[in-house]
Amino acid sequence: MAGMATTSHLSSASSVLSHRPSPFSSLSLSSRLSTLPMPSLRRTRFRPLRFPRIMAFSSNDIKVGTEIEIDGAPWRVLEFLHVKPGKGAAFVRTKIRNFITGNTIEKTFRAGVTIDEANVFKETKQFTYKDGSQFVFMDLTTFEEIRLNEADVGDKTKWLKEGMDCNLLLWKGKVIGLELPITVQLSVVEVDPGLKGDTAQGGSKPATLETGAIVNVPLFINTGDTIIVDTRTGQYTSRA
User: Fold this and answer.
1) pLDDT tens for each residue of 212-232
2) N or C: which end of the chain has fewer CB within 10 A?
3) Quick one: how many helices (H) and strands (E) in the chain?
4) pTM of the model
5) Strand-by-strand arrangement of the 235-239 sheet
6) Taking Cα atoms as reference points, which of 42, 178, 164 lies closest to residue 120?
7) Which domain holds residue 139?
């Protein structure tokens, strides 16, 4: 009897639940879907991922061109030599140049020691014009301007020509250097006239270029000619 009573109560409860109205029974399927929150769609500008650079490495990884930070200053490795003496610990002998001052020194590191990397970045900018004592460079993507003083540009001013693309070196958000193209085409504005029969092997003469630089050129070069100059050596290369 007890078992029958329990069964009776359960069936009654099931009957009540099956007849209880559902709060969604009066809504159609489309209505119920419309009440669900929909994610907002916004146009987002694609930005390429920038992977973090290694901030430290071993002295065993040093090679020519490695950029390192020493005493809070950025340096570039010009030469290196791994030495393993018969007695004593191995070491790395280097010649490094300071990005900011341009000074070159020799420095030795113990093999395997940790060295901080100098995160020096290159960004291409176009030299647009000179404003007083300042040289104005523009980012052709953002049109942002960066101004450098004559002291920052140094003797590279004699090769700068409007419209020239250059590399600015940045370290910790500051411009620490300027890299020019290896060669540049410049017009000759003043030079002694060439003589008939002059050849490239027959000697040279000074010529003043449009930037004010003076370069020795072959005797056959005349005013109005365009020549190619190596910006690293400041020497005439050829006629353009």
Assistant:
1) 999 999 999 999 999 999 999
2) N
3) 3, 16
4) 0.65
5) 214-218, 204-209, 183-191, 226-230, 235-239
6) 178
7) 120-179
